[in-house]
What does this fold into?
Amino acid sequence: MKHFPNKLLLASPRGFCAGVKRAINTLEGLIEKNPNKTIYCYHQIVHNKTVVKDFTNKGVIFVDDLSKVPEKSILVFSSHGVSPALIKQAKKNKLKIIDATCPFVIKTHKEVKDFAKKNFKIIYIGQKDHDETIGTTDEALNQTIIVSDIEDIKSLDIPKNTQVAIVTQTTLSFDETKKLVQALEKKFPELIKPKLADICQATQNRQNGVKKIVKMGAEIVIVLGSKNSSNSNKLKTVAENAGARAYLLDDITEIDIKDLENIKCVGLTAGASLPEYKIVKAIKWFKKHGITEIEEVSAAVENNLL
Ligand code: F3S
It folds into this structure.
């Protein structure tokens, strides 16, 4: 007989981080204050399908190209930040800029700028095509090299006696990044690195929550979040590395019920850009499907981390 799990472990913290809340509140505030104006947002305000859809329904227009924004319009920069060239162009187009970049991302922009001023070669650990990586590395394009994995590090060819520094994307897997930093340290013993990489505390807390639920018996971990969300993808990787099967879904109804058969305990978490109502819906879904025991597993208590 096929059994459906009877126990649900809820990782905590999960869902919205302080940076995402700040970006969403910024956009909501603008809509409220400007009922008759169109608000434009450069890139998705946060990487989550549901959030973007909800704002689109409220009239916000998301663009990937400044030429689509009429002169003097209100333009919001997303939580992932933008390049200095884009800010320059937006100013040239006389746009009213509202910056919703997460302060932790701003911190890495500053690090890149500071190292560049001191003539360092900057190794940026991050996902090459991610909005955050593009925006941050553009601060000093000629002095920055992006690395995403060990292969990239092996092929690094930096002349001897070059001063080297590391900056990292804020939403990476902590354990994976640690391995990359160690490999870089071997290659460049003198390099300057951040204390614990630039991975933000919210990302680390959510990853620790996943490790904890797997340790406590979650055979499957469901990560609610969008496919283009870096931190959500990393939660899936963390769950897999801890020994569980993991799925990244925008909505709990996307799960194939067969995947939950013959499992005793399932874990649930959510990326930092997933709205709470999606988590509530998932918990209700599990209850409807016969989960009788729900346990909240806390890895950290988060106050406002900004
Ligand atoms: Fe900022 Fe970290 Fe959230 S970088 S947007 S606090 S996941």
The chain has a mean pLDDT of 95. The chain has three domains: 7-16+200-298, 18-102, 104-187. The radius of gyration is 21 Å.
